[in-house]
Amino acid sequence: MEFDKPATSADSVKLKRRQGACEVEYIDTAHQKFYKYLVLYWTKYKTDQEAFVSRYLALVQSPGFGKSRLLREVSNMAKTNGGDSGISR
Fold this sequence. Notes:
The chain has helices spanning about 10-20, 30-45, 65-80. By secondary structure, the protein is mainly α. Helix 2 crosses helix 3.
């Protein structure tokens, strides 16, 4: 979908599919593993900032593998768990 062209019915179908995909229950455990890694990374960063080049992580994968959905689920976990994890929505 290009921004300088009007949306088509095919674009609407794609958007509805993407929205629907995020509304069904997430059945994998990847989000839990990634959340634990983020908390571990943040904990280490807080104790030894000099050991890190930055406080950012890259999430890289081919299109269609669920990066946005993974981050949405991690965001929901952070919102629920909160606390001193350093991860916030």
